[in-house]
TrEMBL record:
Residues 2-84 form the D-isomer specific 2-hydroxyacid dehydrogenase NAD-binding domain. PROSITE patterns: D_2_HYDROXYACID_DH_1. The keyword Oxidoreductase applies. It comes from Lentilactobacillus parakefiri. GO terms for molecular function: NAD binding; oxidoreductase activity. The keyword Transcription does not apply. This is Formate dehydrogenase. Keywords: NAD, Oxidoreductase.
Amino acid sequence: RQSVEGEWDLSKVGNQARELQNKTIGIFGFGRIGQLVAERLKPFNVTIQHYDPINQKDNENSKFVEFEELVKTSDAITIHAPLT
């Protein structure tokens, strides 16, 4: 949307942008949305790991790790948990 509205200034954002390739992405909360995020990250050639207190199983897109390991070993963490 910012690009269409002419508000996207790559010179301001460019220095803060990061490549995803070859990074480890942690997903906190591996319900429906967390699993969809993992699926969409696959083409970026990243290692995907997740923590969820209920869903503690590996799947084809992600490996389950304990919370402490997720925080220590992830280059970026996405959070997909209810606010309540």
